[in-house]
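Inverse folding, one chain.
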């Protein structure tokens, strides 16, 4: 992280925890802002960002990801995943047109693994992959008024719905999910001014509040803790628009297509709440059963205490009302509503 940018964040009250910001001095108030669905903004510079360029980049990405990348060519960001040959999600990502090619934004803890795998498939194609993490300051924005805050951050006057917007100083990218959310990218030298402009419309928050906002949007962050744990349908990528069944072949496509055509999905993504001790990768059990019934994908504190999480769980177990609990955590899990419809297909 550029020293000037880090100093600017510290001057605005940022408290660090490792590579990310824990809070801006009022953790409870920041969670309360998410609860009220107010606009919030947080730095996301510790996440992975890979750019892909070249004359064959579109066909290359088509052969590696679960979704049709062509809409990104015309400005619409694409939610997608890269799979193992067995159809398991190695990493989830957002793909969007950027600079003279495309950008892939995803959890940083899978950056090395994903970059190595993608480069392995480049072979002799005219495709170049570049680590762009240090090239751009990134701000996440969520809640009512997030679009206005994002436009101010990148120096743009108006956004086209569901399209990438380019402003005088940066780029604004809509994020997937039913709750308004955006990613702003600006050069490091514009980072302090971008955050200051966003602050006129959104409250600065740390990573826990941002994670809570994304959990409430029902959008999973599929990184190292759950890598190769699920097929994409189980992570709700279908209702979130992250899978194309007509785009043609890609790594793991046979498993995804077979699951779709058989119409039997045993697990899916749920939103849950617990008293304490929830974390990504944790196994979930049902009372009286020895076999794990699912896994926590991500978790964040909730206002008033306790935590909320996204978890992939067995559908029949949830529908039976079995008492669920996370391994090593105190208390049980309560299943909460997601903000979008999901077809129930227990099999």
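Residues assigned per position:
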């Amino acid at each position: 992280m550029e020293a000037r940018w880090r100093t600017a964040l510290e001057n605005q009250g940022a408290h660090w925890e490792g590579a990310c910001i824990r809070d801006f001095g009022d953790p409870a108030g920041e969670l309360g802002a998410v609860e009220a669905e107010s606009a919030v903004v947080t730095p996301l510079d510790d996440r992975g960002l890979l750019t892909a360029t070249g004359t064959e980049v579109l066909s290359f990405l088509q052969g590696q990801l679960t979704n049709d990348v062509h809409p990104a060519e015309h400005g619409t960001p694409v939610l997608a995943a890269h799979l193992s040959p067995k159809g398991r999600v190695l990493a989830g990502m957002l793909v969007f047109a950027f600079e003279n090619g495309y950008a892939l934004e995803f959890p940083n803890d899978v950056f090395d693994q994903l970059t190595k795998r993608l480069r392995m498939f480049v072979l002799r194609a005219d495709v170049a992959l570049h680590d762009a993490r240090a090239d751009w300051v990134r701000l996440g924005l969520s809640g009512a008024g997030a679009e206005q805050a994002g436009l101010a951050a990148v120096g743009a006057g108006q956004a086209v719905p569901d399209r990438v917007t380019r402003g005088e100083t940066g780029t604004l990218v809509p994020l997937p999910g039913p709750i308004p959310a955006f990613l702003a990218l600006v050069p490091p030298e514009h980072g302090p001014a971008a955050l200051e402009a966003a602050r006129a419309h959104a409250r600065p928050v740390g990573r826990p509040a941002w994670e809570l906002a994304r959990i409430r949007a029902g959008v999973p962050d599929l990184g190292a803790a759950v890598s190769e744990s699920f097929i994409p349908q189980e992570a709700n990528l279908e209702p979130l628009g992250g899978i194309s069944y007509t785009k043609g072949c890609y790594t793991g496509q046979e498993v995804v297509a077979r699951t779709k055509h058989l119409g039997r999905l045993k697990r899916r993504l749920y939103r849950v709440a617990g008293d304490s001790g929830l974390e990504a990768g944790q196994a979930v059990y049902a009372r009286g059963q020895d076999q794990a019934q699912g896994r926590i994908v991500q978790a964040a504190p909730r206002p008033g205490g306790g935590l909320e999480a996204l978890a992939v769980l067995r559908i029949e177990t949830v529908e039976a009302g079995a008492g669920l609990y996370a391994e090593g955590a105190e208390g049980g899990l309560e299943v909460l509503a997601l903000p979008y419809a999901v077809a129930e297909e227990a099999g």
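The longest strand covers residues 89-98. The chain has three domains: 3-47+134-217, 48-131, 224-336.
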